[in-house]
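Tutorial, part two.
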Amino acid sequence: MGKDLSRRMRAPMPLSQRTGLGRIFRAGAWLLLMASSSQAADEPVGETIYQRHCVRCHGINGSGSTEHYPKALTGDRGIDELGRYIGKEMPPDQPGLLKANEAEQVARYIHGAFYSAEAQLRLHPPRIETTRLTGRQYAQTIADLMVAFYGPPARSNDRGLKGNYTTVNKNGDGKQVFERLDPQISFDFKDGSPKPGEFDPAEFAISWNGSIRAPLTGDYEFTVRSPNSFKLHVNDRKIALIDAWIQSGGQTEFRGTVRLLAGRDYPVQLFFTKAGQGVKKPEELRKKIAPASITLSWKPPGRNQEIIPTSYLSPAEPRETLVVRTPFPPDDRSTGIERGTSVSTEWDQAATDAAIEAVGFVISHIGDLSGFAEMEKKHEGTLKEFCGRFAERAFRRPLTKEQRALYIDRPFASAPDVASAVERVVLLVLKSPRFLYTQLPRTGVDSYGVAERLSFTLWDSLPDDTLLNAAATGKLKTRAQIADQARRMCNDPRFENKMREFFVQWLKVDHAPALRKDPLEFPDFSGAVAADLKTSLDLFLEDLLHDPAIDFRRFLTADFLYLNARLAPLYGAQGVAGDSFQKVTIKSEDRAGLLTHPYIMAVFADTRSTSPIRRGVFLARSVLGRTLNPPPDAVTPVPPDLHPKLTTRERTVLQTGAKSCQSCHGLINPLGFTLERYDALGRLHATENGKPIDASGSYQSRGGQSVALNGAKELARFLVDSDEVQTALIEKLFYFSTMQPIRAHGPDALPNLKRDFLAGDRDLRRLMASMATLAASAPPSASQASPPKVSASTQGRKP
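Running the prediction step on this input gives:
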């Protein structure tokens, strides 16, 4: 041993060892080796664990297995949260089998390989889909198609209807006495006249003219109450909606129903006469003069009947609008947002029936539309010209030579007469894919395609004259030009109507079931109260969406409600009288805009109590954009009678306390608890079963950060600045507006829109203009657009 030692000592040492650098080199090499081996081992270890314990249920690429777990393994948990869940719950037959570091390693592998949004984007790149018109878009498009031939719509900033007051002589001739703007039609002249001394109380007439704007889409029931003669026309100047010109039987209340589209102005005419009723002379018999009175009210869809508010009336007189009554089947909502990406026999038949309905409108209004009411051979040239303009409007672009031959020349050449030719053209155009589909793949720069994408993104309808002229003159080629048009279009009433539709879908109240509450628990609740609450929400949205800058923060923090005399006592407001709604500031420290609006709170509640689960699911899915799986088994809520001494919060904890529930209810419940101060009618309450309300809750973000929340106000303050809320809002709004996933426009689309949203002070008008500019600037090519899904029942049929 000594010889070996002496031999080693005599051997010359390398320079690196003699200078001490050897130790540094060896240590550095060891560290590099360890780091690289650890990095290399991370993925194989996680993948190995996945192959050993997870692949049987979740499949090789996380796509699932039909035998054990058929769903794809995707979600929005961060790596840390996913690792904790795996460590506690997986594998299902041996939960807790994996050590903490093993659970983290397999979570890291799963997250990067196929679980996260980024991984799904890599595995399944989204594509821009060819879409058909939804039922809502079809109705709007047909309406604008007809209105386009009338020129710019009549508009006025004045409110009310123009009243023309006349005397009537024995021959029935009238002489105007005066004209004025009446804010509402609600008059009781008794046995007098509109202006004593200028009218004979027994012989006068009034005609009211102007327009009415529909706040909602649906059937409107109009009611006229009068013992006198009258006619009411709504969106039809030829045929009266209610005709009581000749009365009998003493009836004084008359009703008629008409379908209207939201956000549009419709012509309205009301003719009223007192002539020939009652005794005129002598003076001592004036007391026998028949009374004169008239009121005009309506019942919008889902609302209570009311005298038509002044804000919906205008003296401007627009032309008639075609509102198709053909019912379309419900559109696909599997993603939570309405879209038109599939074709069925029912939709195809509805499109045919609606086209036939449109043909009837064109023929009956051909004089207004074309300039010639007589469809005779001598006017064939003019009518062909009209048909050509009709096809170009419907297709959103000029006709090619081949298209003109197919859609115009051939029908006129083969039809037995000019009227039949016009009918055939209209039907052929409205059944063409060029009318029924948007996002059709095209090649090259296409300014008309840009115009189409802008109009359907912002209006759900056709381009207007300004937009088509910009396309025709090459003023939609640059991004700046497109953005200018988008900003202009965001000030159109159709834009506000589309935004309202987004919010009712976002809030999940567009198809909410009729509100019902236990009459013993809530004796003041009624069907009329339910309708008033819905009206209150509509007016709240209308108020915020009408602002020049639509600040998203106000939707979550506004401190006002719209209340009438029926609602005010329920929600602690003073000084509100009558059926008309008034804007009332609520001084409660816990009122937080939409989140605590009484209608929202009542919808997301049970019949007898609140529902932290339903409210928490709404907040998690709609507002925060979290992914929640449905419960594995149908669960009936624990009825209050079963545990009468427990609060709703305590019953919820009891019901969802099982370990298997916590993967979802650990997120849902703490969010829902923050709204517990609002009862099932959306009223503030401080106690339940003699116990103070506990509105404390929390939220754990995707990144694993936890924030404590107490009450709606703290919740709203957190949500307003939440990056997750902003992401969810932009993704949902983009999908709603374009019916395309935002990620199909590239990885930078979402972060760029978020940055623009924050820079624009959360202004939704500016955000929508940016979205429309992005969507319109990125035309779908033939290689990236996917065809619509066709159901088996329509295979082989032309759409």
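Confidence is low (pLDDT under 50) at residues 1-43, 278-282, 792-799. In part three we will examine how such features are distributed along the chain.
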